[in-house]
Design goal:
Number of strands: 9
Protein name: SDR family oxidoreductase
Largest sheet: 7 strands, parallel
Strand order of the largest sheet: 3-2-1-4-5-6-9
Strand content: 15-25%
Keywords: Membrane, Oxidoreductase, Transmembrane, Transmembrane helix
CATH architecture: 3-Layer(aba) Sandwich
Number of helices: 9
Pfam families: adh_short_C2
Transmembrane segments: 222-242
Shape: globular
GO molecular function: oxidoreductase activity
Number of domains: 1
Helix content: 40-55%
């Protein structure tokens, strides 16, 4: 048994980010062709495109503002023209901002999180799910966060956006399931990325002490779950919020 995405085309938004790069390369390593979305880092997108092509897969870098419907539709057209229909969507992009208390957080930060978590997902669904319905197959995967279950101080804008996103995914899973399209969320914990390895910041005793597995997860461990959900091995899983956090958060029944 192995993850085989041969013949599939995947879109990863925020593909030039720390997690996005690893997810894209992992999907390519499983045989998928890649549409690599970026907002502004064109040079990093070009490097990633070359890395995917070096794995023997087709790849295109596509620029878009995923908080704007017209931009997402333009991205969809460019991908269709260059790669064909998308089988797998990974909604990973999110606006970055400075976290602070509810009383001090700027109102526009809440708006940015709503736009990049909720509306990105809505626009991606409107753009790409109709082709999945036509093929009676599709994988729609959102990157959520363990913070959605933690609700710690200073997380309010991020949590608000991600919890809103969660609602969209749960409803969407019920709406498109009859077409054999699965809709799921991966919720990373505080993850070790390439930046941590370069800066020597992989360890945090305070955080690790609360994690049952007593360590932080890695970007590759997140990407592995995304690849599983993108594959036929996950064909009867939909509507799920799956923490990849070493047990740091545990959804209850």
């Amino acid at each position: 048994m192995k993850i085989d995405l041969t013949g599939r085309t995947a879109l990863v938004t925020g593909a030039t980010g720390e997690l996005g790069r690893v997810m894209a390369l992992t999907l390519a390593g499983c045989g998928a062709d890649l549409a690599l979305h970026y907002r502004s880092n064109e040079s990093k997108a070009a490097e990633l495109t070359a890395a995917v092509e070096a794995l023997g897969r087709r790849a295109v870098a596509v620029q878009a503002d995923v908080t704007k419907q017209d931009s997402v539709l333009g991205m969809k057209k460019e991908i269709a023209d260059r790669l064909g229909a998308v089988d797998i969507v990974v909604a990973n992009a999110v606006v970055q901002y400075q976290w602070t208390s509810v009383l001090e957080q700027a109102p526009e930060d809440y708006a940015s999180q709503f736009e990049s978590c909720v509306m990105q997902s809505v626009y991606l669904a409107k753009a790409f799910i109709p082709d999945m319905i036509a093929k009676k197959h599709g994988r729609f995967i959102g990157i959520n966060t363990e913070c959605s279950m933690q609700n710690f101080p200073t997380q309010s804008a991020y949590v608000a956006g991600k919890r809103g996103m969660d609602g969209v995914y749960r409803v969407l899973a019920k709406e498109v399931g009859e077409h054999q399209i699965t809709v799921n969320q991966v919720a990373p914990g505080w993850t070790i990325s390439e930046r941590d390895r370069e800066n020597g910041t992989e360890r945090s005793e305070a955080y690790e002490s609360a994690v049952p597995l007593k360590r932080r997860g890695t970007d590759q461990e997140i990407a592995n779950v995304v690849a599983f959900l993108a594959s036929g091995l996950s064909s009867f899983i939909t509507g799920a919020y799956i923490p990849v956090s070493g047990g740091n958060v545990m959804p209850s029944i």
